[in-house]
Amino acid sequence: MSLSITPDNDIKKESSTFINMVYDYDWSSTLLGPMDSWDPALKNAVNLCLSSKFPICLYMGSPHWTELYNEAWIPTLKTKHPFALGKQFKQVWPEAYDAFFPQLENVKNTGKGMFCEDQYFESQRDGYTEETYFNFTFSPVFKSDGTVCAIFNVLQETTQKVLNTRRVKVISEFSHRISEIKSLESACHIIMNVLSNSADIPYALIYFVDHKPNTARLIAKTFDKDNIPDYIPDSPEIIYLTEDINKSCNTYVEVKRKDVTFSLLKCDSWPIHLVIKEEEKHVKALLKDESQAVIESKKISICGRTLSAVLIYGINRFRSLDEQYMEFLKLVTEKVNIFLRNGIIIEEERKRSKLEADLNYQKAMFFQSISHELKSINL
After folding, report:
1. What pLDDT is attached to residue 29?
2. Percent of the chain, pLDDT > 90?
3. Cα(135)–Cα(128) distance, rounded to whole angstroms?
4. How far is CA 224 from CA 186, 193, 204, 214, in A?
5. Model pLDDT, residue 11
6. Residue 72 CB coordination number (10 Å)
7. 3-state helix/strand/coil string of the chain
């Protein structure tokens, strides 16, 4: 007796629109043929897939592996839904085909499932090549004759967890290295050294602004002069802000992602003059090769001294500049602020110590001179 492919009433009530899409799909147009002709084991797997609240996809029929998935799987697909329904694996995931097709075939041939943790691959599901990570299982679905008719793929995306872990590591390294600060200059170089190990900030620069000659001076960067990335704008040692203002930098480009839309300022050079304005705390820049950067300004007043700094962060090409990314950059900037403040404090304390030492020396020399004079008078 064959099992019914019809979903039960509870499933219909919970997600009738999507489930109807699955059952109304013209499966006869695929290599699988109409649903009524499917093996009972496959029908049972479909019901289990659609009733689950966990992201599940069925890859059916080797070697083409046609896809059927539940509603919880849609966030994994992003803009690939609804195209992916009923399509072959290679059509849906051409960027992952070479990596995953052998694994699917291995599960089919051996009849043994597999599990992967934080598996990395570059997906193209939201208008750009995206760095993603997943925990997933591949489990065989057996027909009554013992052959494998489908692969049951249970999945959990762990991208944000992986990103959070590595970003926390960067923030923690700042805390571990704060005791190494010897001066303002050393603080800048330690900052660059920490950021040079961050996958989320492929390059970074610090400029100090001198408002009287109206210039910005490059203090530190994560790359050396012989290894300048070819995708960043010219980054001279000194930027003359008066000349910089005259450069054309007023075109904003809207970038759309599935979950966020943001505006980027199209730039051929660093728009430092914009971020040092009081009303413009940071700029999201779109560079000439479509890469992105965030430019921020910080003003630090301490010990009677005011420092204006401009921080430039390159953005990972494989990540969207979403809310979590901006929150990470905010934490980095807070740490940079602490390092710069400590650098200033240490320099001012060193100046005070030197001044006190000079005064004590002059005082000692004065009293020594008086003592000699008094002795000569007594003699």
Report:
1. 96
2. 66
3. 22
4. 16, 12, 11, 26
5. 44
6. 18
7. CCCCCCCCHHHHHHHHHHHHHHHHCCHHHCCCCCHHHCCHHHHHHHHHHHHCCCCEEEEECCCCCEEEECHHHHHHHHHHCCCCCCCEHHHHCCCCHHHHHHHHHHHHHHCCCEEEEEEEEEECCCCCCEEEEEEEEEEEEECCCCCEEEEEEEEEECHHHHHHHHHHHHHHHHHHHHHHCCCHHHHHHHHHHHHCCCCCCCCEEEEEEECCCCEEEEEEECCCCCCCCCCCCCCCCEEEHHHHHCCCCCCEEEEECCCCEEEEEECCCCCHHHHCCCCCCEEEEECCCCCEEEEEEEEEEECCEEEEEEEEEECCCCCCCCHHHHHHHHHHHHHHHHHHHHHHHHHHHHHHHHHHHHHHHHHHHHHHHHHHHHHHHHC
Copy the structure tokens of residue 19.
């489930």
Contacts of 91 (CB under 8 A, 6+ apart): none
Could you give the domains of the chain?
9-157 (3.30.450.20), 170-344 (3.30.450.40)
User: The whole model's pTM is what?
Assistant: 0.84
Q: Are 239 and 207 in contact (CB under 8 A)?
A: yes
Residue 4: per-residue pLDDT:
47
CA separation for the pair 244, 34 (Å, rounded):
66
Residues ≥6 apart with Cβ < 8 Å to 312: 204, 205, 206, 207, 270, 293, 294, 295
> φ and ψ at 271, to 5 degrees?
-80, 60
Of 260, 304, 28, nearest to 127 by C-alpha is: 260
> Low-confidence residues of the chain, pLDDT below 50?
1-4, 10-12, 14
Amino acid letter, 238: I
* Sheet strands side by side (includes 66-69): 66-69, 56-60, 148-157, 130-142, 114-123
Structure tokens at 289: 């090769």
> 172 is written with which tokens?
């923690």
* Both structure tokens of 75: 């966030």
Q: Encode 344-377 in three state secondary structure.
A: HHHHHHHHHHHHHHHHHHHHHHHHHHHHHHHHHH
